[in-house]
Design goal:
Number of helices: 6
Oligomer: single chain
CATH class of the largest domain: Mainly Beta
CATH architecture of the largest domain: Beta Barrel
Length: about 210
């Protein structure tokens, strides 16, 4: 098993925190990164979370990011918070039952597009985390849903897509040629989209 560590505030979803192992002596999370070559351990202490405030107490914030709810402990509020606020939080993991996070700082995001950004970040995180730690194309976090089986045509399209410049993508016309027809090509495109492996834009397929 390979071990790696990061000192940055790592973007994670709340479910990732609860699924990770915890080094109780040092309050360090041990996130498992699974790949075709084995399991890698990433040691994490600082985390970055985003979500909606669902409850407030005198020294705690309860944050919901769509994957779970976690308690955030603070010493002093930087600015007034209200239930329903969408916030981004930087903090450190704190051992306890249940697990919590000690807040270093936070900011209220008032632009509705911040929630869209959050969802896109989660999609990137659970598919492309390997880009930040130099693992491989099959690396994913343990909380990522298991992909459904793909047929050989869809996999062939995906393999071709991985070799393309990400800014150029794979035109639908080439997908249709590879698949042996427009109907089969569209089925492959939909299959890759359903598995969060690709997205379409202007009749071109791009890898996620």
């Amino acid at each position: 098993m390979i071990s790696n560590s990061t000192s940055t505030y790592l973007k994670l979803s709340i479910v990732d925190l609860f699924l990770a192992e915890l080094d109780t002596n040092n309050d360090i999370l041990v996130c498992k990164l699974h790949s075709s070559s084995g399991v890698c351990s990433l040691l994490v202490q600082k985390v970055r979370l985003s979500g909606v405030v669902t409850e407030l107490t005198s020294n705690c914030i309860f944050l919901d990011d769509g994957s779970g709810v976690i308690k955030l402990e603070y010493e002093e509020l930087q600015e007034k918070l209200s239930i329903g606020d969408f916030i981004c939080v930087l903090g450190v993991v704190k051992n306890g039952n249940p697990l919590s996070v000690k807040v270093h700082c936070y900011s209220i995001k008032r632009d509705p597009m911040e929630e869209v950004k959050h969802m896109l970040e989660q999609s990137v995180l659970h598919r492309d985390i390997m880009k930040y730690y130099n693992f491989n194309d099959e690396t994913y976090l343990s909380s990522q849903p298991v992909m459904s089986d793909l047929d050989s045509v869809s996999m062939s399209v995906y393999e071709a897509l991985k070799t393309r410049d990400q800014n150029v993508g794979l035109p639908f016309s080439e997908v249709y040629t590879m698949a042996g027809g427009e109907e089969q090509g569209n089925q492959a495109i939909v299959a890759l989209e359903m598995n969060s492996m690709a997205y379409r834009d202007n009749n071109t397929l791009f890898i996620i």
